[in-house]
Prior knowledge:
With 284 residues, this protein is α+β, with helices and mostly antiparallel strands. It is 37% helix and 25% strand.
Amino acid sequence: MSIEARGDDGQPQPRWSHRGDKPESRPLYAYVLDADDDLAQEFDQRMRIAARQLATARVLDAGVGRCDLTPWLEAAGDGPGLLILDGLMALDTCVAARTATELVGAGDLLLRSNARPDDMLEQTTAWRVLCQARLALLDAEFSERVRAWPQIGQALLRRVGRRAAELDVLRAISSQPRLEVRLVLVLWHLASRWGRVDPSGIRLALPLTHRLLGQLVGAERPSISHALGRLAQAGLVTGSAGDLHLHGTVERHLECLIERTGTVGIGQPSEQNRPSRGRFASTA
């Protein structure tokens, strides 16, 4: 798998080496506010026109497969980092032969690791591109160009906080003792961002292999396959890897699991504390 910068003629430019050397040829630059609508919404129309001209960044293309983002993150230097414009990526963290995965996509900001050294535990991290991705290199030069518009830095900082909050949610989901509950919760959590409403419910068209789902919820691949089979028999989750359909609502899913198992490790919400049906709720 390679990551390439493309020139004005659309042809791939020389790749950076693992030392972080820059390409010899001039790569393509993109208007970041055009590529990221949410970031553009930080400005009124007049200020957006002014900021757009200077908020430009080098664009990198990443094909599906494993990749090494280290040289690109190092190249960002004192800048914000790598901003995902399109696509889907997975960050795998492995400790003691067990892997936990985080999914990131458009709008997420990737930072250079500043983790404290752990003399007790050995860990490794690896990036995978699950869907063709484009990333903007927000380096120190970018920060200098947009210094007059602090809204950009503030918005990017909020996105860092959002990623941390997403990890907290996954941590809470992983604490559920029953696999079916963990699986249902993580699927609905992913659907809140990447799901699409269709006549049968919510469609989650992500490349979610059983192995990847296991890394998201802390389970082995065969266990995920069996759990999905049980959820399909209950009419809660149907489809195949890469094209899953969630039927009903998350509240109904949890109620069904309580009815089938007696307990799922969480208290059934009372009527007054029951969550709302949410934006993906069925109208039936």
